[in-house]
Amino acid sequence: PQQPQQPQQPQTASIVKDLVRGCLIGAACGDALGANTEFMTKEEVTTTFGPLVKNFKHTTQRPYGSVTDDTQLLFSFLQSLLLCRGSLHPPLVSVLAAHHALSPSSFLFLPSYSSSSSFSPLSPFSFSSDEEGKKDKERGGRREGGGRRVRKK
């Protein structure tokens, strides 16, 4: 006697691809919705929008629904991670930096992963120190110094 056929399950890779796509769309939507409050304190948000957001006020020069550099960095990071076949070792940083060189913005933020002050002597990019971020905060800026700014040399 033949065994009853089990319903076919979708391929795991397809499921993962759909989940990743959903996460990316969700992140981009959240970024676009929150772009008008980027870098604002809770008090500044309350002053601008009131205690309960009932509608959205357009407070920037960006078109409605625009994502910020946060989404651009997320996409660049994931594309770089794919190019490095999932490796999180320093070569990923070089690929990410090269990827970023093609982007329209002139800088990006990366989490600190070492005390190195640059990628390599051949790299067109360099890290600024965490101390610069702390000094920026002391001058009234918003950088805490927890990340490292990458700039073209």
From TrEMBL:
<dbReference type="Pfam" id="PF03747">
    <property type="entry name" value="ADP_ribosyl_GH"/>
</dbReference>
<keyword id="KW-0460">Magnesium</keyword>
<feature type="binding site">
    <location>
        <position position="69"/>
    </location>
    <ligand>
        <name>Mg(2+)</name>
    </ligand>
</feature>
<feature type="region of interest" description="Disordered">
    <location>
        <begin position="114"/>
        <end position="153"/>
    </location>
</feature>
<dbReference type="InterPro" id="IPR036705">
    <property type="entry name" value="Ribosyl_crysJ1_sf"/>
</dbReference>
<dbReference type="GO" id="GO:0046872">
    <property type="term" value="F:metal ion binding"/>
</dbReference>
<keyword id="KW-0479">Metal-binding</keyword>
<feature type="compositionally biased region" description="Basic and acidic residues">
    <location>
        <begin position="131"/>
        <end position="147"/>
    </location>
</feature>
<dbReference type="InterPro" id="IPR005502">
    <property type="entry name" value="Ribosyl_crysJ1"/>
</dbReference>
<feature type="compositionally biased region" description="Low complexity">
    <location>
        <begin position="114"/>
        <end position="128"/>
    </location>
</feature>
<feature type="binding site">
    <location>
        <position position="70"/>
    </location>
    <ligand>
        <name>Mg(2+)</name>
    </ligand>
</feature>
<feature type="binding site">
    <location>
        <position position="68"/>
    </location>
    <ligand>
        <name>Mg(2+)</name>
    </ligand>
</feature>
<comment type="similarity">
    <text>Belongs to the ADP-ribosylglycohydrolase family.</text>
</comment>
<protein>
    <recommendedName>
        <fullName>ADP-ribosylhydrolase ARH3</fullName>
        <ecNumber>3.2.1.143</ecNumber>
    </recommendedName>
</protein>
<keyword id="KW-0378">Hydrolase</keyword>
<dbReference type="GO" id="GO:0004649">
    <property type="term" value="F:poly(ADP-ribose) glycohydrolase activity"/>
</dbReference>
<dbReference type="InterPro" id="IPR050792">
    <property type="entry name" value="ADP-ribosylglycohydrolase"/>
</dbReference>
